[in-house]
Amino acid sequence: MNEKKIAVFAVMAATVLAMGGCAAGGKATQVQPAVAAAPAAVAVPATTAVKGTTAVVTVSIQGAMPPGNAIGTVDMTLHLPPGVTAEASETGAVAPGVMVLSGNAQGSLAVGRFIPAAGSSPPQLRAALVNVTGFGTGEIATFNLGFAGDAPLLPGFSVARLGVTDPRGHTINNLTATLALQVK
User: Fold this and answer.
1) Which has the least CB within 10 A, 35, 105, 113, 151?
2) How many CB atoms lie within 10 A of CB 101?
3) What is the distance of C-alpha 121 from the center of its chain?
4) 105 close to 43: Cβ distance less than 8 angstroms
5) What would you report as the CA-atom Rg of the chain, rounded to the nearest whole angstrom?
């Protein structure tokens, strides 16, 4: 059974990497729901742009899980604001340290790909992770992104696509991704 799950991850990783072009000092922190709105909306505080060089985006999965179920895979596309980039190879594979699994997803296998802005498409990060035993909702990953000049604000980031399955490969609906931003 674990061999099947590893094979599923290998296919997900290959898909992410094969996608074509379809991104300490003062701190600013914001939290915003992304993808389907959470039942109780949380006001996003306005912040003033600050100078810095690193935007740290934390992704969490929220929602009610079916009883006795767990998250086995997450496949998502994160749209980035103009000027935000991720260190990546010529093929787009993110460099070590760009995508750090955190919270409940620690110990999972993951792969990420940076897709630069092209035409009217914003810069994007495509990320896939798999965990053969599964994990619960909550924080799953932190992305360490670069920028120059004024810091990006949280509303410039969005989760454009989110797919979640259980360890057996069954789709889990009604989950959302939330984003938090810290500028360093």
Assistant:
1) 35
2) 19
3) 17
4) no
5) 16
102-113 pLDDT, tens digit each: 999 999 999 999
- Residue 17 has, within 13 A of its CA and on its CB side, a CA count of 16
Q: What share of the chain is helix, strand, coil (3-state, %, to 5)?
A: 10, 45, 45
How far is it, in rounded angstroms, from Cα 109 to Cα 157? 24
Burial class (CB within 10 angstroms; exposed 0-12, middle 13-18, buried 19+) of 115: buried
42-78 b/e with 16+ CB inside 10 Å = b?
eeeeeeeeeebeebbbbbbbbbebeeeebbbbbbbbb
Residue 85 belongs to domain spanning: 2-183
Provide the number of structural domains found in the chain.
1
- Which backbone phi and psi does 176 adopt, to 5 degrees? -125, 165
User: Model pTM?
Assistant: 0.76
Quick check: 5 pLDDT over 70? no
**C-alpha dihedral, 37 to 155 to 158 to 33, nearest 10°:** -30
CATH number at residue 101: 2.60.40.680
Query: Rounded to whole angstroms, how far apart are CA atoms 19 and 126?
Result: 9
Q: Which residue has the tokens 């998502």?
A: 76
Q: How far apart are the first and last CA of the chain?
A: 43
